[in-house]
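TEACHING EXERCISE
Course module: macromolecular assemblies
Task: Read the component lines below, then compare them to the predicted structure of the full complex.
Student: A.B.
Group: 4
Components provided:
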Amino acid sequence: MSKGLRTRREIVNTALTMALDVGLEGVTLGTLATELDLSKSGLFAHFRSKEALQLAVVAEAEAWFALTVVRPALALPRGEPRVQGLFEGFLRWVRGEIRAESADERPPALGGNRCIFMALAEEYDDRPGDVRDALVRAQRAWRATIERACRLAVDEGHFRRDVDPTQFAFEFMGVVMTFKHSLKLLEDDDAEPRARVAFGGLLARSRAVA
Amino acid sequence: MSKGLRTRREIVNTALTMALDVGLEGVTLGTLATELDLSKSGLFAHFRSKEALQLAVVAEAEAWFALTVVRPALALPRGEPRVQGLFEGFLRWVRGEIRAESADERPPALGGNRCIFMALAEEYDDRPGDVRDALVRAQRAWRATIERACRLAVDEGHFRRDVDPTQFAFEFMGVVMTFKHSLKLLEDDDAEPRARVAFGGLLARSRAVA
DNA sequence: CGACAATACGACCGATCGTGCTATTTTGCA
DNA sequence: TGCAAAATAGCACGATCGGTCGTATTGTCG
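Instructor-supplied answer key:
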């Protein structure tokens, strides 16, 4: 990989980390450049606008999410185990545990740990533009992933036939969102067990009586 | 009420509305002054710092929330009706329907409609300061309100004795958060019925068999 | 090694940020 | 109605915003 692309990735990953603290609009070219020991103009040359940088950040977040959350779950057997894997992966993600594939790729967000998608959802939910569009696309894809896993669980006979995958994904998201809220804002130590109880209930309700 | 206090409220309510679009940090003294046909310094004189303005906005939001969500629910009979009232009020709030008590008090946020507390939760969940502290206090109070209503429902015999009010409030919040996410970001038309199904399930699980 | 393209830098632009200070207008009351 | 007090405006400040441009440095490859 060329020098340019390497620094570009460093920029994007650092911007991703900073965005967790101050939001994506709050990531400033100046502070970002200082953080990276780069000149502002040298940094800016990699993207022709700030919005391009923001889009790159969203794309990078998607890549890490796929690697950390989706991929490991897809390695699990289809049905309930995979659904559970998605949930566990999502918890890891919200806790800020991001894993790198190869050794030389350091993952972002070592300190500032929280789900950037939920942060961006609030930041952009009524701010039209390409960033919002990219975000919506990513979130819809994620919901679809949950739905697909749920549908497979129905097909496998793990879940009841009358389980609605869309409703399942809707409630799945709710559990993780309130988990994040409790953990990060309210600093509730019991957030994780409570999330497991809630999700356990959702699973139990969906499960076939067998 | 003196002229000063009146304009002060106008400022705060307008800032509240703007914060729904651009976040609380994103509300600029300049744009706020322009919006209100005030000079920047004239506006600034009402608060001695931007943070004071932000704190006033949070306090104002709490007041509207109490008026729109909590108060109507407390008028309902204790037990399940009151719990349901809190949920319906919260849905109204998230949809942006804020009611004024007296005619001369125009409520804020006519256009930009979404829950400012969820937005601030993301904005401040790792940004220490007085604003965050105020927000955390407000959110904990809200959770406590839900828990109290749930406990009363247990006492009234509407809910099962082994229902955990804290867990109930945790899941209650999850339903509304995923509702807001679906409605505002994903623009899902089915968000509201899905939220009702989810909450209905939560109620059904909590209900005493009787 | 030499050369050309890729990359980074420094200076600078107009605009706007939050925040003082002082002058002027407006308000409420004696 | 007059006057102190309250409210608002005017102006300026240092800093920083996203972005441009010309130039220097550096990486890459023949």
